Amino acid sequence: MKEFYLLMRQYVAPYKRYLFGGLLFNVLSAVLNVFSFVSIIPMLQLLFGIDTTKYTFIPWDTAGMSIKDIGVNNLYYYTTELIALYGASTTLLVIGLFLAFATLLKTSCYFASVAMMVPLRTGVVRDIRAAIYRKITNLPLSFFSEERKGDIIARMSGDVGEIENSITGSLEMIIKNPILIVCYFGVLIYISWQLTLFTIVVLPILGTLMGKIGRKLKHKSLEAQEKWSETMSQVEETLGGMRIVKAFGAEEKMQERFNATVDDYRHITGRVFTRQASAHPVSEFLGTCLIVLVLWYGGTLIFSDHSPIDAPTFIFYMVILYSIIQPLKDLSKASYAIPKGMASMQRVNKILDAENPIGEAADATPITSLGEEIRFDDVRFTYNGAADEVIKGVSFTVRKGQTIALVGQSGSGKSTLVDLVPRYHDVCGGSISIDGHDVRTLRISDLRSLIGNVNQEAILFNDSFYNNIAFGAPASQTPEEERQLRERVIEAAKIANAHDFIMATEQGYDTPVGDRGCRLSGGQRQRVSIARAILKNPDILILDEATSALDTESERLVQEALERLMKTRTTIAIAHRLSTIKNADEILVLHEGQIVERGTHDALIALNGYYKRLNDMQQL
């Protein structure tokens, strides 16, 4: 239960005022419930002639008597006076109204206790989801290369939902039922300590039998949630690759694969639900066994010559004892539900506890602009500590305002190398420095604010053109700032050759682009992406094969936009189409993580080496 206590301390503690409010109203509800039983039975005894004692009024300040004894005596006195004045029938109606009023108070307190728990329950779930999302956005890219997106989505939806239903839903039971049990046990001890001692001896034996069902529940629940993650991952993969599924006629194959997964999920959850459903009948049966045993033992005491309890009191004792069964059953449900929810919490913690190796020093150096150069000094990198290095001792310098191009075969380490500049990964050897400062000593937010990216796959969000282009801009605070930002967005779109096709849409800049820009062509997506980079106005520009997936006309428009963007900026460009980087100040040819050739386009052609062969193949 360590994880449960950590959950309580981390997520429930901020809502402790609601917890204490619920606790207070539950105490009041329990006291009123006991009071209604305690007061009603003696009055009924008087009403039906079971108690024939003559009561007289005792002043409330009588010395030598407790307020409790005076209160009970005077209650009996008023009841007898009421019977004498108005008769038994009217008195019975008054007693009924009294019971209804007591019940109204009790149920009002119960409602208040439940209402107090609602902000806690919804707040805890909100905080967990926010913590997961915050962690996801802060984790490095290497984490997502090892985890499936569908699995992460399942943890954020299904697992957090299970935490809400199983754990936060059980908090009310955990708070309310111990209070009821303590109050009821107090009354039982007051009535007959002998019977209560017998009950306490028998109860743990029955509780042990009930607990055996819940011990295996967490393990099965963990299996079920993992299978649910696998299901969500298949759905996510299918949605992302629907074009390929249809192109290869693999609909039935994917359906069979999915059906096999959901069948496994059904079998596992079936066992979990069966075990969970057994909680109520088992607790009902064991509770009845407890009542039978106490009934037998209490009857034995009454039939004895020196009974410590009379028959009416024993009936009242049995009423209270039966009232304690429901809180015990609720606790047993919570004991099954909490392990089920902790299995989900364990999966959520795999994300929340994931280490982020891209750390920032407490005394990190601020940086506002690129002054002189970016220097790569014997840079080495390997993924996850693997033996084979992806980058093997690469060294070069990019002067301010220069354009450096990286070319080479797929898998030669070009994209990995440029990902080291904004610290999507950290170097494993050597260093990358900006104006003499190792990037690992700089503020991450400052470092990344200097860099603009245009990738081969233009990543757009399911939002309007305007919001996609203004994605990295600070939020406008005033109407004047909003107007200025809109003007800058339009100007950026014009520079990126995107303004004309944006204005041709039905709502102009407010037109949604669809999921990942699905309503746009590849060239249009890329030009919107370039407009976004233009608006950011970065000192350093990283182009990762920005035109390789485009047709000739789209490439021409995008290339024009890129040339405008590259003016007065320091650029590192990755290119497969060598025609797009002929004018670069220096071209670095990478092969298996190493620079094998370097120079201008003409010099590399004259060298008649690896670059010349790449150029000849493209010419062919």
Task: Give a concise summary.
This protein is of the alpha/beta class. 64% of the residues lie in helices and 10% in strands. A hairpin with a 2-residue loop joins strand 4 and strand 5 (437-438).
Report what the structure shows.
- With 620 residues, the chain is of the alpha/beta class.
- The protein is built from 20 helices and 10 strands.
- It has helices at residues 2-12, 16-47, 67-138, 141-146, 149-191, 193-215, 217-240, 242-247, 251-277, 279-303, 311-352, 414-419, 444-449, 465-469, 479-495, 499-503, 522-536, 552-566, 601-607, 610-619; strands at residues 373-381, 391-399, 403-408, 429-434, 437-438, 451-455, 540-544, 570-574, 586-591, 594-599.
- Strands 6-7-8-3-9-10 form a 6-stranded mixed beta sheet. It has a 4-stranded antiparallel beta sheet with strand order 2-1-4-5, with no helix packed on it.
- A hairpin with a 2-residue loop joins strand 4 (429-434) and strand 5 (437-438).
- The two termini are 68 Å apart.
- The mean pLDDT is 80.
How can the largest sheet be summarized?
6 strands, mixed
Distance between the termini: 68 Å
Number of helices: 20
Which sequence of SSEs, written as H and E, runs from N to C? HHHHHHHHHHHEEEHEEHEHHHHEHEEEHH
Report the count of strand segments: 10
Supply the key terms:
single chain; 620 residues; 10 strands; 10% strand; alpha/beta; four-stranded antiparallel beta sheet; six-stranded mixed beta sheet; 64% helix; elongated
